[in-house]
Design goal:
By secondary structure, this protein is an alpha/beta fold. The chain contains eight helices and ten strands. The chain binds adenosine-5'-triphosphate and magnesium ion. The site of magnesium ion has 4 residues, from helix 1.
């Protein structure tokens, strides 16, 4: 299968304010097939957000190249939806207008748009909040609005940077399952960053484990557990193996049991 997203030898260097050269990503290569669900895990500062921003067309690699369908990514593309680590809503616009924003930018607003946005808001438990301002919402609620905004134009590629980080544990599990349902109904290529190993495994076809700075790919783990999945599947042996391997990679061989609490 040809790759939907192709990342070839990507290095990204930042010049910090005090003149240091920070190598955020070093020689990262990854091919993602259409409709694959990839999760990205690794320690803080290993370049996960940087990689997502490159695929989103928000920043360019220093060297190497990322492409979608063979076309180099030089700017944000309409077939991509992104959920940032922080909600980044327009503070002056209502919840509804925030969700509709991508359609408005693409001149794709029509008579069905408001219904579509309302259906997404219902999905994330925010019916009745359409007319509210983002500042009237909690952090977790704002993040759910941002998730609706990323989905409203039905993107083929969904980039999600710790989208459920601000949610309470229960809502987080619900949203994880909801995302799997949405993806199952209308498959799309997903690149999803998380700090939760169990979330990474329950969602993914492949888990990409990154090493500390300079960010590189330490290992790619296939999760062969059949779908549909749930967190109840966690006792499953393929699940367990994948989880253990990721813990080994992140916490080191000797700290596997200590790492369990952190995951
Ligand atoms: N615009 C920037 N200017 C300077 N340095 C940057 C910039 N963006 C990222 N970095 C640096 O690049 C490295 C990787 O950052 P990045 O945000 O990609 O990490 P991350 O894996 O997403 O971390 P976290 O899990 O904490 O979100 C960090 O050392 C960070 O300080
Ligand atoms: Mg990040």
């Amino acid at each position: 299968m040809t790759a939907m997203i192709s990342i070839k030898g990507v290095t990204r260097v930042f010049d910090s304010r005090d003149g240091d050269r920070i190598v955020a990503l070093q020689d990262v290569s990854l091919d993602i097939a259409a409709n694959q669900f990839i999760t990205l895990v690794g320690p803080s500062g290993c370049g996960k957000s940087t990689l997502l921003r490159i695929v989103a067309g928000l920043i360019l690699p220093t060297s190497g190249e990322a492409s979608i369908g063979g076309v180099p990514i030089r700017e944000p593309r309409p077939e991509t939806g992104i959920v940032f680590q922080a909600p980044t809503l327009l503070p002056w616009a209502s919840v509804m207008d925030n969700v509709l924003f991508p359609l408005r930018m693409m001149h794709r607003i029509d008579s069905t748009s408001a219904d579509k946005a309302a259906a997404l808001l219902k999905l994330v438990g925010l019916s009745g909040f359409e007319g509210k301002s983002p500042r009237e919402l909690s952090g977790g609620m704002q993040q759910r609005v941002a998730i609706c905004r990323a989905l409203v134009h039905e993107p083929d590629i969904l980039l999600m940077d710790e989208p459920f980080g601000a949610l309470d544990a229960l809502t987080r599990e619900e949203m994880t399952m909801e995302l799997l349902r949405i993806w199952g109904e209308r498959p799309k290529t997903v690149l999803f960053v998380t700090h939760s190993i169990s979330e990474a495994v329950v969602l993914a076809d492949r888990v990409v484990v990154m090493s500390p700075r300079p960010g590189r790919i330490a290992e790619i783990i296939d999760v062969r557990t059949p779908r549909p999945r749930s967190f109840d599947t966690e006792g499953n042996s393929t699940f367990h193996e994948a989880t253990q391997r990721i813990r080994q990679l992140i916490f080191g061989q000797r700290n596997v049991s200590a790492g369990r609490a952190a995951a």
